């Protein structure tokens, strides 16, 4: 597979301000994600990481600044339009349809027109990354463990034929084994596909192991940008405080 140039950005965020009501959460945020790379976003709880993902994905549009995705200004576009363009947001919450089977949940992820012709290819990719989902494809999603539910959420994002995955706290509430499984899959996505990933994560070790670049967000501002190999866990944790 020919991989895109690492310095070609699929996502560029410039001067982003975002609010909840009258409370400003993001302040002049600037960052970018290169094609086929993984960016990890760190920072204390409540300092704007999830807000940034929601601003990018159209759930809580920014009041100021711009978001460019795959060469197009997408600032303020609706979420369903962004999914059609290849941007998939995977929230922290257990966002699955419990009354459907695992396979039905996955197929639902391919509802957009661009993804429909690639349903079988993307299903094969998901099952190769998460064999457990293949084993449980006929089970109701309500029967899945927390870790399996996270696998399903990521898998459904892949079924949309995404070019960029925005993943919020993939390891939250999981056992060490499930954390390793989920981040192992993220690493395989990185190594075997051209999909770009932005991941918000508190487990610094796991995220550093798969990331190409890291950004640190504090009080709604990007206060650090570094290559993942240029920084260690202690520097990040120190910057938190």
TrEMBL record:
Residues 11-241 form the ABC transporter domain. SUPFAM superfamilies: P-loop containing nucleoside triphosphate hydrolases. One of its GO terms (biological process) is L-amino acid transport. PROSITE patterns: ABC_TRANSPORTER_1, ABC_TRANSPORTER_2. Keywords: Amino-acid transport, ATP-binding, Nucleotide-binding, Transport. It comes from the Bacteria. GO terms for molecular function: ATP binding; ATP hydrolysis activity; branched-chain amino acid transmembrane transporter activity. CDD domains: ABC_TM1139_LivF_branched (cd03224). Belongs to the ABC transporter superfamily. This is ABC transporter ATP-binding protein. It comes from Desulfosarcina alkanivorans. The lineage of its organism: Bacteria, Pseudomonadati, Thermodesulfobacteriota, Desulfobacteria, Desulfobacterales.
